[in-house]
């Protein structure tokens, strides 16, 4: 086959024949990418799409941005080493300089960095091992609705019981209620809801009869990504930080998807004015290439040499690309730009909130979600209606037909998620929103069980 001239259908058919049944995105986004630039990709048939998946949030600067591509080219042109295990090199030292400069001084001044190999889930595994070695404890406290990766240890943290029901998943993880105004775990949202959620955690840690052994750590996402773009309230995060500090439990923040400007601050924990004990980073910090790190308080540095390793933790091209990307985000205030563009996009998305089939519009910065519901199906727990994954899939397909790539997440995969590159412009935000609103209205109208519109 001549791949240069192949069609979408030809490449997709070959992929289906040769790749694992575990492949996911091609089942819902049936394209083969020929070219990519900025916020758009073009398929083999010449169709152009706005990319609001962007490598699941990896491409902070979009496709083929000159900052990381030129940095990688310099490494190659200068014949630098591109693979060094954990032996240091100039590109690595510059990356660490830039990474630490991006963090609050209070955290950076006592920070150690562990390079992992090569995905966010590897860094999660390292963080679990770190806090267990530092505390001597084994159990971990996670949260309902969480997603931390697909390796065995990370899967044990997952809030989705069906997904993690596989051999080898660890059992010493306890899942706590995550505050959610739309589906509040205690039946009440707002300030009262998050106070109940934090009080629950505090009581559990203080109660010798809770049935939970002393935990090695608490891990959470400041905004649950795969969980449906669900942001943690700032006041709740401050309480969790107070509680974990008072009970001497390390707080691990998974910012694999939220880190580096995505939520409107350089790091999502900065909204709450806290600092973690352990910070897990990947995706955007590699400038589009595989790279993951754990940044942690040096008081936890109790593990020995080789306690966590990985062949590709010495990816110098990724470090050069990541250094350039972090620097570009900081120099150009892309966190503030993400806040502005996220507010603009959310205002547009609120334009479908009055539809009976739209349950919730939520998120933070350029990490947004729209949850679809079945208005005739009550939710057995808190929340007015059951999530409607079928309608969300129909909306995703309608978006794709119109030139927009969005991903699904949340309960029943009923939440359309937006993770566009941070460089998205006002005009592109308006186009993206117009396509989405049109797709939603058509998908709702095509569903005979739904009333197309209701009064706001």
From TrEMBL:
Pfam families xrefs: Aminotran_3
Q: Which SUPFAM superfamilies match?
A: PLP-dependent transferases (SSF53383)
Q: Which cofactor does it need?
A: pyridoxal 5'-phosphate
Query: Is the keyword Transferase assigned to this protein?
Result: yes
Q: Which InterPro entries match?
A: Aminotrans_3, Aminotrans_3_PPA_site, Dat, PyrdxlP-dep_Trfase, PyrdxlP-dep_Trfase_major, PyrdxlP-dep_Trfase_small
Q: Which residues form a coiled coil?
A: none
The yes or no answer to whether the keyword Transport is present is no
Keywords annotated in UniProt: Aminotransferase, Pyridoxal phosphate, Transferase
**Record GO terms (molecular function):** pyridoxal phosphate binding; transaminase activity
Q: Write out the similarity annotation.
A: Belongs to the class-III pyridoxal-phosphate-dependent aminotransferase family.
The record's listing under PANTHER family reads: DIAMINOBUTYRATE--2-OXOGLUTARATE AMINOTRANSFERASE
What's the protein here called?
Answer: Aspartate aminotransferase family protein
Identify the species of origin. Halarchaeum grantii
């Amino acid at each position: 086959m001549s791949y240069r001239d192949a069609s979408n259908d030809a490449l997709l058919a070959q992929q289906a024949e040769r790749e694992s049944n575990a492949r996911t995105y091609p089942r819902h986004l049936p394209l083969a990418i020929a070219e990519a630039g900025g916020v758009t990709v073009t398929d083999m048939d010449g169709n152009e799409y706005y990319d609001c998946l962007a490598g699941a949030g990896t491409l902070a600067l979009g496709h083929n941005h000159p900052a990381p591509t030129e940095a990688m080219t310099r490494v190659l042109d200068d014949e630098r080493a591109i693979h060094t295990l954990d032996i240091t090199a100039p590109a690595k030292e510059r990356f660490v300089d830039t990474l630490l400069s991006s963090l609050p001084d209070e955290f950076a001044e006592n920070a150690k960095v562990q390079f992992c190999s090569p995905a966010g889930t590897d860094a999660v595994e390292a963080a679990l091992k770190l806090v267990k070695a530092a505390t001597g404890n084994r159990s971990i406290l996670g949260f309902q609705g969480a997603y931390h990766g697909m390796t065995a240890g990370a899967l044990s943290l997952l809030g989705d019981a069906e997904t993690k029901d596989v051999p080898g998943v660890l059992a010493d993880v306890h899942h706590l209620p995550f505050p959610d105004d739309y589906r509040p775990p205690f039946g009440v949202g707002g300030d009262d809801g998050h106070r109940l959620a934090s009080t629950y955690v505090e009581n559990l840690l203080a109660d010798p009869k809770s049935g939970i052994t002393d935990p090695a750590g608490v891990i959470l996402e400041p905004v649950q990504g795969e969980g449906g773009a669900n942001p943690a309230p700032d006041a709740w995060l401050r309480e969790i930080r107070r509680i974990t500090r008072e009970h001497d439990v390390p707080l691990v923040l998974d910012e694999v998807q939220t880190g580096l400007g995505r939520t409107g601050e350089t790091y999502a924990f900065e909204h709450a004015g806290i600092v973690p004990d352990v910070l897990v980073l990947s995706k955007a910090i590699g400038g589009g290439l595989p790279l993951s790190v754990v940044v942690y308080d040096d008081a936890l540095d109790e593990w020995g040499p080789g306690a966590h390793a990985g062949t590709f933790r010495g990816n110098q091209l990724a470090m050069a690309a990541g250094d350039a990307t972090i620097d570009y985000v900081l120099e150009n205030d892309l966190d503030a730009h993400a806040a502005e563009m996220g507010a603009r996009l959310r205002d547009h998305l609120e334009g479908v909130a009055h539809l009976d089939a739209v349950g919730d519009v939520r998120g933070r910065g350029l990490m947004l979600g729209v949850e679809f519901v079945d208005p005739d199906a009550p939710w057995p727990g808190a929340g007015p209606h059951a999530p409607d994954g079928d309608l969300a899939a129909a909306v995703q397909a309608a978006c794709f037909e119109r030139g927009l790539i969005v991903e699904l997440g949340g309960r029943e995969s009923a939440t359309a998620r937006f993770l566009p590159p941070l460089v998205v412009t006002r005009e592109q935000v308006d186009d993206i929103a117009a396509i989405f609103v049109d797709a939603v209205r058509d998908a709702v109208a095509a569903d005979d069980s739904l009333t197309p519109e209701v009064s706001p």
